[in-house]
Every structure is written in structure tokens, then in C-alpha cells.
Amino acid sequence: MVAAGLLTALAVRAGAADTVPGALVQAYKNNPQLNAQRAAARAVDESVAIALGGYRPRVTATASLTELRLETLTRVPATAAVPTGKAAAAGDLLAQNYALTATQTLFNGFQTGNRTRQAEAQVFAAARRCATPSRRSFSTPSRPT
Question: Are 10 and 110 in contact (CB under 8 A)?
């Protein structure tokens, strides 16, 4: 009974690669060269989003907190109110500052457009490099004549 189940499972697994889509799936799953090139293509694809960031506004926020303690000691003539001849005063000051700045580039000498086109060209080249080994992997071997 166990042997029959094992044979059935192996037959089903082998049958998945009998179709062209099944063979493609198996090749993509088991070919480290294809997987590495697909990962490299995904990494290059991120450069387009980075280049497009030149069109987006930039927002900067800053905050500061300053605490100041001021103590003064003054010598005064001794009186009934101040028998030691010294008068002391102390005070605390707390200052808080907040700032929010937003900037939008209107024109940067076509740099953002050029960077975006360059990144898109690199993505296209990476896709072509990724497609070339898969064609070699799936092409039929040439027969000697």
C-alpha cells in the first residue's frame, strides 16, 4: 500500500514536467543561474524608483529643546531683611523650537529625467541578460550534420 502511494506520488511529480509550462516551472525553480539573474534584475529594477525620487518633494523636520538655569548671587549691604549681605535669585527657562521644511525641485537641468531614462535602460538590459540564459536553457541542442 505504501509502495503504491509512493509510486503514485512520483508519477504525479514526473507528470508535472511533461507539459511545457510544467517544464518551465521546474527549470526556473531548479536553475541557480536563472534565479541569480532574476534576483540581479530585481535589484536593478529598484534604481528606477530611486531615480524617480528626484521628482518627489523633500520634507525635513527638526526639533530642539533648550533648558537654561540661571542663578545669581548679589552682594548687598547687610540689612534686617538680608542679614548676610547676600541676595540670591534663581530661575529656569525652557525653550522649545520646531521646524518643518518642504522643498520641491522645479528644474534641475534635466538630471532627474536623464537618471530615470538611464535606470530604465539598465532594467531593459538586465531583462535581456536574464532572457538570454533562459533561451539557452530551453533551446533544443543542435544536431551534428
Answer: no
Q: Report the first-to-last Cα separation within the chain, whole angstroms.
A: 50
Strands (E), 4-108: 58-75, 86-103
42-76 tens-digit pLDDT: 888 899 999 999 999 999 999 999 998 888 888 77
Q: Radius of gyration over alpha carbons of the chain, in Å?
A: 37
Backbone angles phi, psi at 91, to 5 degrees: -155, 150
Query: Domain containing 110: what range?
Result: 33-54+105-139
Same domain, 63 and 37: no
In the numeric block, the cell 533562459 is attached to 134
Q: In this predicted structure, which of 33-37, 78-82, 103-107 has the lowest mean pLDDT?
A: 78-82
Those residues whose C-beta lies under 8 Å from the C-beta of residue 69, and which sit 6 or more positions away, are 90, 91, 92, 93
In a domain, 7, yes or no: no
Mean pLDDT of the chain: 79
Is the pLDDT at 134 greater than 80? The verdict is no
